[in-house]
Amino acid sequence: MSIVTEQDAVPKLTAKDFASNQEVKWCPGCGDYSILKQVQTVFPDFGVPKEDIVFISGIGCAARFTYYMDTYGMHSIHGRAAAIASGVKAQNPDLSVWVVSGDGDALSIGGNHFIHLMRKNFNVNYLVFNNQIYGLTKGQYSPTSEKGKVAKSTPFGSIEEPFNPSELALGAKSTFVARSLDRDPKHMQMVLRRAHEHVGTSFVEIYQNCPVFNDAAFFAFSEKDTKKEQAIFVEHGKPLIFGNAEEKGIRFDGLTPVIVDMNTSGYSVNDLWIHDEGDKTKANILARFFDSTFNGEYFPRPFGVFYQEDRSTYEISMKEQIEELTERKGRPSLDAILSGNKTWTIL
Amino acid sequence: MEILESNFRPNVPIIEADSIVIRFSGDSGDGMQLTGNQFTDTAAYLGNDLSTFPEFPAEIRAPIGTTAGVSGFQVHFGSKEIFTPGDEYDVLVAMNAAALKVDLPRLKKGGVIITNTAGFDKKNLNLAGFAEGVNPLENGSLDGYTVHKIDVTRFTKECLSGTSLGMKDIERCKNMFVLGLLFWMFDEPMEYTITFINEKFAKKPELAEANIKTLKAGWNFGDHTEMFTTRFKVAAAKLPKGVYRNISGNQATAIGLVAASELSGLAMFLGSYPITPASDILHELSKYKTNNVKTFQAEDEIAAVCAAIGASYAGGLGVTTTSGPGMSLKTEAIGMATMLEIPLLIVNVQRGGPSTGLPTKTEQSDLMMAMYGRHGEAPLPVIAASSPADCFNTILEASRIAIEYMTPVICLTDGYIANGTEPWRFPAAADLAPIKVNFTTEANGPDGKFLPYKRDERGVRPWVKPGTKGLMHRIGGLEKQNETGNVAYDAPNHELMTRLRAEKIEKIADTIPLIKPDSGNETGKMVVLGWGSTSGAIKTVVRELIDEGHDVAHVHLHHINPFPKNLGELLKGYDKILIPEMNSGQLINLIRAKYLLPAIGYSKMQGLPFTTVELKNKILEIIK
């Protein structure tokens, strides 16, 4: 049993402790309010001192998040938050670093940093508030907008395929891929906790409603009348079940997912796909429950932690390499470096 | 070590020369850079002052035998002080027809040509673009030069016949034959190169043996054939006493960064993306990871500078190294760093531009970009290095300013001094001034509040590392309210902050030494004002002119923003001001704008440094 002295006993922080003194200025009804609230709600449980937390954001509505957290933070330039976070983490691996980004910031102007952060696997939590629209610049289509999207810059409809962020993250070798949504606070809190616990880049896509420029884009997955049919919430070790009466399941026919009705098909819960966060093949298929069809059938949109893998982080590998090198070679003096190995003397 | 000089042909006279320029020229695969470097090292050990200038083709593997694939290495060594790699060469080593074609124009009249005749066969002559049936070695076009036609390839093969090496490896030794011959010609010992070869091929003794055998064969060829009637001797220079090493600008930059880390106690973080001619800084610095140095090859130029900003924000010293195109990409992030007011070093190894321009050629055309190349008003300090070794001082000074003044600093070098080398009487670590770092750990405002943009008397804001208890705050690219750093859009505040940011940079001049002429008097008929890598050429010429009785001085700028406080006064003391630049006139615009002085510009935009001859002619033309 450890002895806790009065000095050591730090009172547990509350959600309020994480709110900065700045007035929150998102539009009324913006999904960002919910995300801010869930973040401030779960942070006290992490036990990380406020001074050891850093938020880095780029540009966009989501990027203002940084100003509202009473932690350290940098509201930087468009698309570059991931690159800045890499430097912060390399310099000081002990900090808890959170990147807050949007679909334009992360996947359009910041696309290159997005994929390389994941490949390098810095231990950073990367939250992408996806509202499928450019909000701060007042309503242009984004790289996640659906094909045909009528927006300010596409009066006749977008002609582009949208990114599927989860699929992209898996392709970029992300070690943690999850999706949640603004209108499901409990689910989001769970995903945020998991992201914090994961050592490596945690990619969390959060479906976020923009009431002004793209209202109700995700209501199919969040509202009572459609949610049960359109969304599926996956949990590690549990079968994939959805439907109004939880009567539907997903099973594998070889490597092809098939939707089965457990009341009529003769399949039972024992025949279903069991979610395994460590299985990248399954994660790849799950991520494609987006706009892909399998045997002509559309699948419900998944939420939860799709994939989690333990892989050495960049900053720790860097640190270990330096330590190993120093042990093997020693630290040369500055004088030795200044002189190099070839000198001559003028007398 | 065996005695190598025992079998001199005593009848070959040795002529004393006070300086010699040799140009090693051949195909990219002929090993001319290595040959030149080995010759240079030996000259340095013998106490010569020297300056080198490697010139690479832009293509890594240009078609063999073509003029596009010619790789050159120039060394100027002497018994007097040497400040440039030399305008023209005394000796041209041409390993093939293309090399002769490219480099003959800058050989002195009556100079020595050493050729490998195997590189002048029909195929090579064709590839070099000589007309059918024309061989410059045979048609009298080289009359007036001393031409030595040697079948280096054949001699190398003969020398190594019977060894276990394959033909490819054997042919690769031919540069050693030439090097041995040159050592003989200039009466220089082979020991240093033999040691080098033994170290380089420690794991392949058969290659070491072959290279040494060929080297000696080259020496013996000079000694035994009747082909050479003169040898040259360049006596040791009267350099200041001390221990020297040879150093390139990129090496000096990297070592400067290691030193800045040690002197400040800050972890050094380099974010960089490969780009010619700056990549060698990344290569060099990555060797020093044991010394509190982290190097990060980023996914692109923008990520490189952003990661460096992140490292500085977290309490390290962030650095990014690049060249012109990379600078263009980094400008938005550098602008943010002026807004964040955090330390950051940006090293721009300038090359010919615009756009991709001339990647392997030098230019000084990014000065205006360094000064003004950011949107909005984003002033920052600009410092330029004047020689390879001066890159070291430049980095230390830039680090000092970045840390003491919480600002990004741009260091300008260029391809000429980045790749060029000179002897450097390096300092002792103990003689280098420490760089003071002051992390804030206490609140600085009323009621225990922390004000991230409350400035001290120098206009500098506090530096707080994340992890510091009680001082949590947010910074960013949006305009800030004075002192609190909160987002502020109101008009008077923006004007105030614009002025405060500019005043801080101006105040740096308080800590910059007053400028004095490098050569000549503090007043007079004419001053040549230079910045950056033109130093060597200007110094050489102005000293010559002073010796010849002319009233001319040389002032060389290192600090370009802000200028040294007395610069205007000093310049006003001369009747005429000449500003030579490897651009169409950039410093001259700054000088004219700031001091309203009628300076005269002298531009060169050929991807090459000024020659002393052209500079001297220009000065003489104006001084008349």
Automatic annotation (TrEMBL), chain A:
Matching CDD domains: TPP_OGFOR (cd03375)
One GO BP annotation is:
small molecule metabolic process
Q: Which GO terms describe its molecular function?
A: oxidoreductase activity, acting on the aldehyde or oxo group of donors, iron-sulfur protein as acceptor; thiamine pyrophosphate binding
SUPFAM superfamilies membership:
Thiamin diphosphate-binding fold (THDP-binding)
This protein's UniProt keywords: Oxidoreductase
| All residue ranges annotated as the Thiamine pyrophosphate enzyme TPP-binding domain in the record | 63-206
Q: Where is the signal peptide?
A: none
Database matches in InterPro entries? 2-oxoacid:Fd_oxidoreductase, THDP-binding, TPP_enzyme_TPP-bd
Query: What is the protein's name according to its record?
Result: 2-oxoacid:ferredoxin oxidoreductase subunit beta
TrEMBL record, chain B:
Q: PANTHER family in the record, alphabetically?
A: 2-OXOGLUTARATE OXIDOREDUCTASE SUBUNIT KORA, PYRUVATE-FLAVODOXIN OXIDOREDUCTASE-RELATED
Q: Which residues form the Pyruvate/ketoisovalerate oxidoreductase catalytic domain?
A: 29-218
Every copy of the Pyruvate flavodoxin/ferredoxin oxidoreductase pyrimidine binding domain together lies at 269-444
The record places domain Pyruvate:ferredoxin oxidoreductase core at 526-594
Q: What is the lineage of its organism?
A: Bacteria, Pseudomonadati, Bacteroidota, Chitinophagia, Chitinophagales
Cross-referenced InterPro entries, in alphabetical order?
2-oxoacid/accept_OxRdtase_asu, PFOR_II, Pyruvate:ferred/Flavod_OxRd, Pyrv/ketoisovalerate_OxRed_cat, Pyrv_Fd/Flavodoxin_OxRdtase_N, Pyrv_flavodox_OxRed_cen, THDP-binding, Transketo_C/PFOR_II
Name the keywords, alphabetized: Oxidoreductase
Q: Does the keyword Disulfide bond apply?
A: no
Provide the GO biological process annotations.
response to oxidative stress
Q: What is this protein called?
A: 2-oxoglutarate ferredoxin oxidoreductase subunit alpha
Highest taxon of the lineage: Bacteria
